[in-house]
Amino acid sequence: MSQRTFFPGYCIDTNALIDLWRRFYPLDIFPSLWKDLEALIPEDYLIAPREVLNELEKWDDELLKWAKNHKKMFKDLDYDQMQQVTKVLKDFPSLVDPDKTTPDADPFVIALAISKDWKWLLPKNPAQVGVPKFQMYAKSAM
Predict the structure, then answer these.
(1) 3-141: which CATH architecture?
(2) Is pLDDT above 80 for 106?
(3) Is the pTM of this model over 0.85?
(4) Comparison of pLDDT for 101 and 66, the residue scoring more
(5) C-alpha angle with apex 78: 74 to 81, nearest 5 degrees?
């Protein structure tokens, strides 16, 4: 049985990367964690939609440089994901800010994870979608 059977992979959100890098596990203090994360990328065990990279581009910092050095993890939207994004936004319109000029990554993260039948992190403010309802949605979508 392959490792992929036990560990299919994870789809990571912008805020998870930012929190890891800036708040909890900075590269200069936890280099082994970042090395372990980097090891997941070549085999597509750690991925994110391209929209996560777009959100990271708001800050010209070391995290953006790291992300650009690991572009393989950022996946383009395909037809299945587009269908999933539509469904997620229909069920949870508060995941996005309608006044923003660029798309929020959250629905794309969820759609990518659903299309892969993988796990993903809850939105940055799960209260805005209602955690119990969102967790039920996650279970039914998988």
Answers:
(1) 3-Layer(aba) Sandwich (3.40)
(2) yes
(3) no
(4) 66
(5) 90
Picking from 121, 142, 139, the residue whose alpha carbon sits closest to that of residue 52 is 121
Cβ-proximal residues to 49 (8 Å cutoff; 6+ apart), any chain: 11, 74, 75, 77, 81, 105, 108, 109, 111, 112
CB 52 within 8 A of CB 109: yes
User: Is 60 exposed, middle or buried, given 0-12, 13-18 or 19+ CB atoms closer than 10 A?
Assistant: exposed
What are the beta bridge partners of residue 74? 48
Mean pLDDT of 36-46: 92
Place of tokens 């980097």: 38
- At residue 133, the pLDDT reads 45
8-state DSSP, 45: S
Domain boundaries, the chain: 3-141
Q: Distance (Å, rounded) from C-alpha 93 to C-alpha 74?
A: 24
